[in-house]
Amino acid sequence: MDDIPEAVREKATYKPASRLPFGSIVGGVSLGALALVTSAFLLRPTAPNNNESISNQTVAKPENNTPSNSEPSATAIPDKSPSPTAAPPQQVKKTEEVDRLLGHLPYKEVPASELVAITADGNIKLRRAAAEKFQQMQAAAAAEGIILTPISGFRSISEQDYLFFRVKEQRAQDTSKRAEVSAPPGYSEHHTGYAIDVGDGNVPATNLSPDFENTAAFRWLEQNAARYSFELSFPRDNSQGISYEPWHWRFVGDRHSLETFYRVRNLKQN
Ligand SMILES: [Zn+2]
Questions:
Q1: How many A from CA of 153 to the centre of ligand 1?
Q2: Distance 156 CA to ligand 1 centre (A)
Q3: What separation in Å is there between the alpha carbon of 178 and the centre of ligand 1?
Q4: pTM across the whole model
């Protein structure tokens, strides 16, 4: 979930705050500049062109001289509140604060009517568009002797609830450790019907293990998954702080899936 480091988010958050005082500073500066310009006129009434350079210098100066840009002049804010630049960044801030939990982003559960089975026993399902592409991909891999085995596709929020809380208890994991390897209920990409955990049918011992990256199936996926609009959700050292999951792939091959996974992230970068 490919996201943005805290520092960047905070920068975006503070932007509007620093803008407002800056506006008021400019207001203040223009008064100071006016005084200087006036005195320049008094001193050198015949050289109007110099006035611009004088006032430019004065504008630059106070900007550097304001040490606490972020806090000051709360009293100036009411004067400048009509500023149209303040509104959009505040919306961004709101979104950022709402959406993360322990590094994970919230996802809606796909309606059951949009799910299609991708295994003969019907136990593993994906959203229709993802299911079709996965099966095409599986067939292409099979033609090269690679067995892409579906391990887990769609998961309901209640199934995820068990995986997060009960397994956490069984393993006596603390919350943040659990969140590195499992999404809390409501925050799993598997709720969308676009995510699938894939194993190598020739090396099942590597299922759901980082060792999966050493299999022929993983190498094949690395080279070919993009042809079917699948991508790795949690590559090594991902900025979400989620453990590397070479087995977990997501479909991003139509508008809805793309928006599902990228819309929130784009907001974070603003
Ligand atoms: Zn997964």
A1: 8
A2: 13
A3: 14
A4: 0.64
